[in-house]
Model the fold of this input.
Amino acid sequence: MNGAEAPDRVDGHRPLWVVPHEVPAIVPLPSRSTEPRWVGVYRWAAVGGDLLAAMFGVSVALLTRFGYHVGSSYLVVSSLLPLAWIGVVALSKGYDSRYFGAGPDEFRSLLRSGVGLTALVAMTSYVTKTEIARGFVVLAIPVLVLSALLLRYGLRKDLHRHRVRGRCMHRVLVVGRSGPAATLCEHLESRPTDGFRVVATCRPRGDQHVAAESGPLQPEELDEPDILAAADRHAVEVVAIATDPELAGQSLRRLSWALEQRGIELIVSPGIIEVAGPRISIRPVAGLSLLHLERPSVSGGPHLMKAVFDRVVALGIVLLLSPLLIGLAIAVKLTSPGPILFRQQRVGRAGVEFTMLKFRSMYSDAEARLGDLYSLSDGNGVIFKMRDDPRMTPLGKWIRRFSLDELPQLFNVVRGDMSLVGPRPPLAEEVALYAADDSRRMLVKPGMTGLWQVSGRSDLSWDESVRLDLRYVDNWSMTLDLLILWKTVRAVIYGAGAY
Done:
């Protein structure tokens, strides 16, 4: 290990971790490649894709605006614009390896770059008094940005395919007590597409609690008291600190210095779960960098905007799909006796009940036969579900497969009972089983779709569905709604978890 051991604490006990006081510059550090090979390949592929997108955008704008009669000045502009695009993306951290393959920052940087490039062209035109046709700029830059987003999306998907196979991963050392460290390991490895592979864990001296079984990582939890030694031994690229008051302040600061000289990234889990980034911010207070947790948006202007958006979009979808709705209504009426619509009381925002509408997918005596089938439920212990429900009509099986039975809920959205996106609308008997925390689901309107819809639907356990609904309530935003709506289309097409 480089540096000396930390001194004993004032209470006479040894410190929990051996953390270096100081790493002198003259001490040779372990040789380590600054970046894995795949990072360089991805970065150059991203640069090549952006250059190709810029050339495509410029070509489309030139041909559309001028045809085959292009002046020499526009040829110069068209030659410089791709280079300017690459530079603007680099300044916007579009080639920062921290964002490769995980999170929305990689795409945000391209959108920011599009705005920046527009401003750069306008300023350059003004300063140099160069006349650039607005039609050229208005067409070239949007096509450029859209093409770059599509190419980067394809590149990211290719990276995800490699990561699912265990390649192109960041090697991670997790540091912390058994409980928090095991939780952090579970979260880091739950999504391999984010690119983190835990290769070892480092626990404090004297922590004799047996962690949950973690396969090949178990021996390391009992034999790695020194963070730097463990980092050097396993050639990790990231050290992840599970929240613990014993490793904070000056000790964490010295550790960050030592890891910085080794070219190792340090990440710290604040111990706040199920809270999205937009609600978390770091603000300086009294000379300290404090973590602020913003209150979730459950009322006011944002929800007024959501209500207007929901009703306008729902009404537009009803008008667009009116032939389909009429056709389905006729098909339900002709294929089995009974009403066209199935009406059921559900619990909405603030516990107010409303009548939810669906196309009837079961025989008219389905409710009377429910009691005989409870023991055969494939649901999650609270919600009754059967994969091969004998009460289902032949047409009902098909319309449920593609969630077409839920289209009448668009009228619930227009009436204001539901939203396009939100928690699953519960039955009154389900609400009666809610724990205290579960009641937060009713802070917002229930939705036709939600995180539960794009994450497995009926295949989810009750705890998982509640966790997803609470995550949505705590982190709601219009951006999240649009993302869920986009993913819902794919979930409906593939019919995952629908029965």
Summary: The first helix runs from residue 37 to 66. Residues 65 and 136 are 6 Å apart (CA to CA). The chain has a mean pLDDT of 78. The first strand starts at residue 170 and ends at 175.
